[in-house]
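User: Predict the complex.
Assistant: Input components as received:
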Amino acid sequence: MADASPAPSVFINCPFDPDYRPLFEAMVFTVARCGFAPRCAMEIVDGAGTRIDKIMDLIGKCPLGIHDISRTGLDRGSGLPRFNMPFELGLFLGARRFGNRHQKAKNCLILDSESYRYQQFLSDIAGQDIGAHRNDPGVMITKVRDFLRSHSGGRMLPGGSVIKRDFDRFAMEKPAICDALELDTGELTFVDFVTLVAYYLKPDN
Amino acid sequence: MTQKTKQKKPIRNGKTPATVAGYRVLGETRDGVRILAPKGKPQSFTVPELKKAIRSVRAGKAA
């Protein structure tokens, strides 16, 4: 039996570096715990075709997006700014502006570390739904949950405190699960991590 | 002659769909949220290995 619910894919546009990892994990866990499917450019394994085409295909398939622009500062190694996140946000907004009726129905949550900080480097996005996570995974969970709640088609979602409790338990058990898999937690790819979360949340494991 | 029909074991209750918008439903949490299987395949482990690891950690905690 198939369900005709709207596509639950959520495009996640965020960094994937060790400093950001706790926020990333809180965001992805919340998306999965609310019954949506996290998707990300990092799931694309470069093969045939250009990466940008694959990213645009992925954006086209996702009616919802979560874009974190808090790490657009200079890269420590190269000293150059990181443009991928604002670029993917621009693609998402462009799809909504110029796409067909499905694309025009897109919605996104834009996150930064502090309120109104974006006005200093990306003032063109003023007027969008922009939230501040204050680099706190608990705040990230609440922001993401509240955004998904308003696009859940009336489905009931667990509250932020329930998701936070589940996430804390997951964060405590994850190192032991990775040990059992003989993996370092830092070695998990995006798809590895999403799979780990999904099967962790699966009832009757 | 009667033909034997193989009974399929139900894996979820009748209310839970097998797929949602092309995503396989892994199951439903106690608060009614459907957990969806990711589209891609993990690169660092297999799903049976992962299930075994989760079970062993939970069993260790319960012991």
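The interface with chain B takes residues 1-3, 5-9, 32-39, 43, 155-158, 162, 173, 176-177, 180-181, 183, 187-189, 191-192, 194-196, 198-205 of chain A (CB under 8 Å).
Let me know if you want any component modeled separately.
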